[in-house]
């Protein structure tokens, strides 16, 4: 893309507001998911996302696209300092000794010397190494390789154990969450402990969420699409969604959720869409992902 077009796009994009994490670092209120892009797709699409205003990027060792994400960031011409970059440690690298090697691999592939946020991808309670992993992540943070440390797919019992054994809770827990699967009890726990909730599959991938008549109706009244209604619901609920799209028009659609509001009645309608049925069917108490 020419610099001229890049500049024109950047002038037109909405400003994404920020939250402040318990550790004092700022995090954008909406981000960009990169699963299941491969390196080539990530390299081509990350500049498109950044030019449309996304600044929080979500990757993981297990997505196999960290090189492409790093190249895409560099191709975009946007400064690394202006980007909030997240990666995740896989189950096979859990344990006091392997965290450093895994983290250094992520940094090398991404072409950066720090992560804004590093997450334990799954607790893998059967392996029972998440506490040692967390301890090593806290040390890497204290050395400056990571700004904020968090987890993904953790249940309250896992979070409480981290605190009991290391004295420190994560600042973020990234979990499956959308209007049909609202995780209200977990969100209340997060609020009590000042843990920010990030939502994966925020648009309900693998569900029929976006086909809902209720969403269509609210969208008609707001002059918005069903996906925008869902993403506005996340933002207005204080949840940070990380929608993935490989389509530049949908990238622009998904980030345009900051200059309008859902009414109280519309928020209540969305609250009533909860079915408790997860799209993935993964239960963190039993799911093991290496
Ligand atoms: N921590 C974890 O365990 C975990 C697990 C899963 C995912 N994640 C992260 O969360 C991110 C998002 O989750 P996800 O990819 O599972 O689900 P998602 O963002 O809810 O849904 C992505 C799907 O929705 C489509 N889509 C995007 N925008 C749309 C729109 N405006 N209208 C209609 N369809 C639209 C995309 O297709 P197009 O690409 O064709 O637009 C894609 O098929 C992932 O990319 C990954 O970074 C984390």
UniProtKB/TrEMBL annotation:
InterPro entries: AKR, Aldo/ket_reductase_CS, NAD(P)_OxRdtase_dom_sf, NADP_OxRdtase_dom. The record marks 88 as: Lowers pKa of active site Tyr. Residues 30-271 form the NADP-dependent oxidoreductase domain. Keywords: NADP, Oxidoreductase. GO terms for molecular function: oxidoreductase activity, acting on the CH-OH group of donors, NAD or NADP as acceptor. SUPFAM superfamilies: NAD(P)-linked oxidoreductase. Belongs to the aldo/keto reductase family. This is Aldo/keto reductase.
